[in-house]
Amino acid sequence: CETHDPAGHPGWAAPTFTPIHRAGYCAFYGECGRNPEVNISLVSSKVPCLSNTPARVATGPLLALLRTVCPELARGSAETTRVCCSLAQLSALQLSVALSGTVLSRCPACARNFANLYCNNICSPDQSLFTNVTRVINRTTAQGTPQLAVVEYQCFYRQYFADDSFASCRGVRLPATGGYAIDTMCGRYGARLCTTQRWLDFQGDKNNGLAPLQIDFQLVPNGTQPGDAVVPLGGTAWRCNQALSAQEQPCSCQDCPHFLLGNANGALVLCGLLFGHLALVFVVSLLCQCWRAKKKKGTAPQPAPAPAAGCSARLGDASHRVLARAFRRWGTLVAGHPVTVLAVVAVLAGGLSAGLVTLRLTTDPVELWSAPGSRARQEKAFYDRHFGPFFRTNQVIVTAPGRPSSGYESVVLGAKNFSGVLSEEVLRALLELQERLAATTAWAPVAGREVTLSDVCYAPLNPTQPGLADCCVNSVTQYFQNNGTRLAMTATQTDGKKTGTVDWHDHLIYCVNSPLSFKDITALELSCMAEYGGPVFPYIAFGGYPGKRWYTEAEALIVTYSLNNFPRDDPRHEWVLSWERRFLEVVGDFQRAHGPNLSVAFMAERSLEDEINRTTGEDIPVFAISYLVVFAYIALALGEYTAWRRVLVESKVTLALGGIAVVLGAVFASMGFLALLGLPSSLVILEVVPFLVLAVGADNIFIFVQEYQQSQREPGETREQHVGRVLARVAPSMLLCSLSEVICFFLGALSSMPAVRTFALTAAVAIAFDFLLQMSGFVALLALDARRQEVRRLGGRRGVARGFGGSPHWGAAGWQVLLFLFLACAGLYFTLQVPVGLDQELAMPKDSYMLEYFAALNQYLAVGVPTYFVTTGGYNFSSPAGINSICSSAGCATDSLTHTIQYATRFPNVSYLAIPATSWVDDFLDWLNPTSRCCRIHRFGNLTGEFCPSTSSDPSCLGGQCLNATRRPTVEEFERFLPWFLHDHPTLQCAKGGLGAYDTAVSMDANGTILASRFMAYQSPLRTSQEYTAALRAARDLAEEITTTLRRVPGTPPDFRVFPYTVTYVYYEQYLTVVAEGVITLALCLVPTFVVSFLLLGMDLRSSVATLLTIAMILLDTVGAMTLWDVPYNAVALINLVAAVGISVEFVSHITCAFAHSTKPDRVERAAEATVNMGSKVVAGVAMTNLPGIVVLAFAKAQLIQIFFFRLNFIITLVGLAHGLIFLPVLLSYIGKTPLSPPGDGALSPKCPPGGRWQPPAVPYQESAQEGVLHRPL
């Protein structure tokens, strides 16, 4: 019975058994025997007795032992020290603490904190304050006294106290494994995913082998109270870098790796110090500036000559004039021939877009995220070449929630508990499902035929002509060979003096313990082997069982179909896809039919890709609406309205649609152009690139159109010349942004990830085409629209120029800089905390059946996917030294391949391996053993010298053992007998035959030389991308260790190696390098931003640095916000961050360019003018173009779109807008370049005089507007 208080603290049971919560009172005391609910315990511990009474005085031996085990509780004298534990309880606690001390004693602070938790739980005199007993059982002593034994209680801790205790132990190493001690103390999570709550939950789990009862740890948030007089346990925990006394040492740096500065988080302290340093530098600079200003104000003003421009400034100004002159002449030319220009543009864009017919969309995740030259791809190619592709998995997980368990008394095998799902009714339902799947057919439309299970199934014992009975299907009903008659069999069994009936229960109990048996020991005499002839290992057919010997208590039954994995260009690939589609339909019907009684979760190999494609198709309308909203906004926002009666004249619908057509034309032309070059695309590119180009293209459109609207035509100036003059004013800024973005994305294409590289190339070409089309097609459209508006104008006034706000309040500028510096440092700190990875659940829509399957997979599966340790060519398996370095039987090396893997499985939280590797070498040696019937040779007759199967009773086989003694085979014997072993069918007479188990595990050439071999182990069940990445790293480390050992075998070449392989490695390898690659990619993107700005802004170093600094701060704040909004970092996020650089350039560069070319006399006025003139254009062209479309994406079904497109792009837009319109102008007002000469100066000559100083010209330089040259009055 759980309740929750209004404050929202963790729920806890009503205090039925602990009515008094008061200092000095116990919740339990003394021992009440063993817990009948705990079957396995490494220590003989007893549960306490319920006793909500005052604490007892500790005297004599109890007090002496208390000072040794729990010194923090023995602070007083013999008369004042009170406890809630007896001497027997404290002695048991001493033993338990000693066990933990064996792995924690390296770090005294950790060991003491861990002991203190249990000391307080068991012996604290204030035990009732933080303890609440929730379940008891009745017990009677030997004297007949009734007692209440506590079997479950709640323990309330303050969050900070538990966190500090956990933090002191998290880094303690375990030298025997090379891992962490916490690996053995956090259950299935291991050190990497262990948290305070998970750590304590494992300590309180009665099934962990140490806890005598169930403890429910409740962590109460700091500052809140659970209520009902419960006071959570708090206090001060020892830090790992803190010595317990003057005579003791703190934990070593190896065991206390946390980056701490004093008591604080080191990263947080450094980020705080960085902010303090930057703030101090800024404030001191301001004070110095104010001091100089006051000093200057107190003196009489002296006229000073204007500082002359240097050589770089003159060259920069000259280059700007050249660009302006070129764009002016180009604009005048295009505006004079708009129809011709539009026709040429349409033909070129349409021709390039026609390349879309050759476009290839990449949907294979391997091709998207794994580089062709990566280690994982090369290892996958090696594996596929020698052993064939990894088989396809189709799986069903069945549970029976609410169905009660039952006990069974076996005549032969004793008493066992059977879970609710292990009932005959459920087994027959599973049998019915498998019979229907065996009988079902699927239509393959391309092949034009019906496909059966036998056409596509993996049949290890009959791969050439498999029948339905040969298909590899692993399930609990396979212990009965999927035969309902055998499931119903009963027999009378006598065992000694006991006689009873045996049925399926007895056979199942036997088979889960002896899965390789061809006949059980009951009167049923049934085989445990599956119908296809292979074994069914219980860890594959059962899930959710408490331990290896308790399979009958499993909570889930698992049915696994293994299908052949044909290449995509193989016609049979369509067969297997068709049958999997039918599989999903049949299992879906089964789920609906049995929904009231059973919980059914399922998946097919095609499910992941199907669900992604489904949700993509369903979200296409969302993207369409998003683009329509953006288009509608652009169409309305471009207009300049003065009266309702002039809406049709003044609206810019045609111009807006033309601008949108230019953007879409650039996207289609770029994709078509790259498709003609053979570059594939992907759905991510189709979703991101249009948004990016819209942001860039719309911004330029707004700048151009609004500048034209605000510009007055000069006397005697034609419409075409007017368009050219406006283009000359805005095009350099547009060129600066576009060129920076194009170079940025081309550098981003250096990434090794195919999806990132393809995106960067597509974006670079699309932005380049967009700029070219705007300089031609859109200029022509603007000229036509100007002509239309002049023709239809009926009078009225010109539009009023629209600026962005007024002059900012520069008095608050200092605080604004400090605020943004603080945000940057905070963003840096949170960037260091951003999670790396992408859990597969996020790729699924919220209504996907795969989410139910993933939940069942994570909850019930006891083992993960098979992991193969593959040996490359060159190793001499036939030599005695070579054999001994591989095998694990008598006479084998202790550091052999199989011994090393087996040892690693003892520490699954470190190695992520659950089941040791199968070894064809060991079974081959057993097969050769002369005491068996396995390896025999015909001694006479027509088959003399040929292999004699174990099932043959031919007299010529008698005494024909391959070896005459138990020994290692010679090289000749090894090469002769190995092919016989690999093709020998396992039988009752010889279960060691290698067909099915090992015939595909050894790859040999025509001469019998071993080219490659594999040894199959099983991973632990992995649940998150962090676990998959850690498993890959651990497997590679283990393989490197094995490689080093095997290279020491005589004759082994130096290029020989062992590598791990499983189907998931190609997906998760990217996370080993994605952080470093992301940093490099983003750094490369920032380089051209600075270089192009420096060159096009007249070599203005200060403005270029301001641009670079602002974009870098935008990235820092964006990644920091990802941490706060649960957006993990991965390749999809990296694509959006690369796009963020391009969008940030739009927010920043236009204002920087306007500042650089402003003619105002001081920095503040120049920054104000740049903000007023460019602010509205940036808001309208970038922010408001993005935001409406981004908000629509929040309604997408796909979680991937919601997280990585809505959340991330929303962050990018808001952060970029704030930095571009608030921080950047203020920064420029402080560090921007002051004009070196007043506005009245003449033109600058590109030639520098001696000394690099500029000399004013003798004659002012003027040209008329009609001649198309800049006019700068003296």
Automatic annotation (TrEMBL):
One of its GO terms (biological process) is cholesterol homeostasis. The chain crosses the membrane at residues 266-288, 330-352, 620-641, 653-677, 683-705, 726-748, 760-784, 812-832, 1079-1098, 1105-1125, 1131-1157, 1178-1198, 1204-1228. It is found in: Endomembrane system. The keyword Protease does not apply. SUPFAM superfamilies: Multidrug efflux transporter AcrB transmembrane domain. Its main location: membrane. It catalyses: cholesterol(in) = cholesterol(out). Residues 619-784 form the SSD domain. One of its GO terms (molecular function) is cholesterol binding. InterPro entries: HMGCR/SNAP/NPC1-like_SSD (IPR053958), NPC1_MLD (IPR053956), NPC1_N (IPR032190), SSD (IPR000731). Belongs to the patched family. This is NPC1 like intracellular cholesterol transporter 1.
